[in-house]
Amino acid sequence: MSETPHPDWAKDASIYEVNIRQYTKEGTFKAFARHLPRLQKMGVDILWLMPVQPIGIKDRKGSLGSYYSIRDYTAANPEFGSMEDFRRLVEQSHQLGLKVVLDWVGNHTSRDHTWIAKHPDWYNYAEDGSIVAPSGWTDVADLNYDNPDMRKAMADAMIFWVKEAGLDGFRCDVAGAVPTDFWESVRPELEAIKPVWMIAEDEGQPWLMNKAFNSNYGWSFHHTMNDIAKGSQDAGAVFSYFERVKDLYPSGAYPMQFITNHDENSWNGTEYERLGEGHKAFATLSFTVPGMPLIYSGQEAGLKRRLPFFEKDSIDWTNPELIGFYTQLNTLKADNPALWNGSAGGWIEEIENDRPKAVASFRRIKEDNEVVVVINLSGAPQQVAIELKKPPGIYREYFSGKDELLSYGAKLDLAPWEYRVFVFEDQAPQIVRQYLGFEQTPDCLIVRTSDGAIRITPHSEAAMEVTFQFQSNGRVNPPSYALASDSSPMEVSLQDKGAFLEYATAGIAARVDKMTAKISLIYKGAPVLSEESGYFDYGYTMGFRFNLPEGEKLMGGGERVLGMDRRGKRLQLYNNPSYGYETHAELMYYSLPVVISSKKYMLVFDNGARGYLDLGATEEYILQLEAVGGRASYLVVAADEWAGLAENFTALTGRQPMPRAGHWGISPPGWAITRSGKSKRWQTNIWKTISRSTVSCSISFGSVPT
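and the corresponding structure tokens:
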């Protein structure tokens, strides 16, 4: 748990990096101040100013030198303006509701800083007596944090900017190279003046955020996005990164996410060079995953060139191409608590999809706010089905402003690098189906409804089929492939009992509610199964919903790696098997659209399309079939005993012929025995013969669940 104070104003903030030198032709505080209203309108919250102090002359790089070679910690760079100009800039920012943090260089000074002459013991020295140039940066001098006087001077300089200039915090350069205890000691001194926000330019030392910093750099995620763009990693790397963040970061702390910054732009290339046509997709990703998003100077103007680090090269502001886009992203973040920073926001939850290498899909939830993000992180079009695993809802797609119904296996068509962001608005309207009347034929009961018809067909005294017949959505039921033969003649009765119709054989009966057309199945007077809403159709997914009473156990469905009771599981169904001979199998050998209940009935979905059996996983007391197409029907088979259930089921669906008596065969490297009509003594003798042999043998015993 992070003990660092977190200012309330940072909880929903995004950050904007300001390069004063390159921002305008003048390169001054006053010239930059003219952009403040535009940045406020764009939704920026925090301005991070690159170092504004005087730059060293000795061993200077280029004609203007590095911002990070500081000659005087408590003065303003005269190239940018006066200290009074800087104070005025901070005041103007505050008047517009913007916070200002300063880039702080605590690890080193320029090689002509006044401290070198006055306090040479404040620096680290090499064996040859020269001051150390950290990391090979020949224009700067490495500070010695073993010296308490130097530490105090550094802390006093930071306090000066907060107290005298009104700063709201610091971005601390190479923070991990400075002892952690210095940052932890100076933070309370700053807090005593005003609440501040601090970010460490570091990723390898998350403990910096225990007591000193609110945030650090999401360097790994930045590199992951670059790798995905060039194809060396896939979309799944997004979630691997956040698993590491969850394990490493103290609770409440968070990374800063970015697709570019001053270092990346100058040394490694623009976002257009690194991310290509996917730059907007990755920008959207950086704004919707956990962390504070960053915009760098000129990013909103479509800056397509590298800005030299040590020379003047002004940004061209004549292109407003992306200002609207980044305004939308800032507003998206600010308006949705699920996307807020640290503990104020919701954590990322991966949403499974059937294109996991190309498409990243996830949700973030905070209280009643939910945001669902689906991004095609590839240069190819993708048709993707996402597994929301929750009841249907109405979501507003943020960029288009259109309302869409999303549920279960929602299917989306995404262009290359397309991004879709859905904000939850309300639960989908409940299925309202009205009973209109009925018609009895010699072989079935047809119930007319407001959206079609329901055909109820008895196949035996223990089996009943329910089929939804479409009205006007263009769907047609294909023929059944589950039934082995036509129904046998039997006596069937139909009774109108006021609130419901009862259509019954001597064993199984269907009750039809005369208001909602919901169906309940009863076997020999005992309730078996009841529809919650019955048939549903959400365009990309159709199926049936049933009530699932407490205590009822469910078996079947395939998926051999699970235990006997599959209640609480969501089982994927395919119309093709995986036999295990390949290097990869999506399923464990097979799937089976049959549910076996501890109440001694089978629920059979006569549907060959891909889909899911949701056995109380998404909603605890709902059993649901979801399919992308196929036959809109289900069969219920019931019995008094388990053996009878198997008999009734196979009578309906067909039985494989048994081999002749005494037939058996060997299938190396094991023995396979098929046996019919032999005594127990015969079985024992066969087993003794096998056990004495040198051939390996595996025996499996089947049992009926009780």
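(Above: one complete record from the training split.) The longest helix spans residues 148-165.
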